From TrEMBL:
One Pfam family linked to the record: DA1-like
Residues annotated as transmembrane: none
Location of the region described as Disordered in the Swiss-Prot/TrEMBL record: 47-70
Biased composition (Low complexity): 50-68
Phylogenetic lineage: Eukaryota, Viridiplantae, Streptophyta, Embryophyta, Tracheophyta
Protein name: Protein DA1-like domain-containing protein
Domain Protein DA1-like residue range list: 1-117
Amino acid sequence: LLTGTILAHEMMHGWMRLQGFRTLSPDVEEGICQVIAHWWLISQLKSSKKVTPTSSSSAAGTSKKGTGPKFDKKLGEFFKHQIETDASPVYGDGFRAGQHAVQKYGLGRTLDHIRRTGRFPY
């Protein structure tokens, strides 16, 4: 889960470069990348709820201490909480500003605004 979250974040950096985004302030760039990482993590947590293992695979999947769906859910919720409550001005405040913008305007409009102005819409 942590690796996937990091990859989603880093892939957003790459996508923005390929799309011609100019150099952004750290809080805007890292913030929108954290929004995407957060979305990815939420999607993983939601998809894990839909998986209902059979009794035989469930026994095999939980034979080691600290493994299995319950552990994965707790771990994912921990990573999600870490993104949401990060105290840093760049990653934490940037995430919260980006999350607010995306919730208010949607991802497409937010990205268009960032591309044009270099800032989050408010």
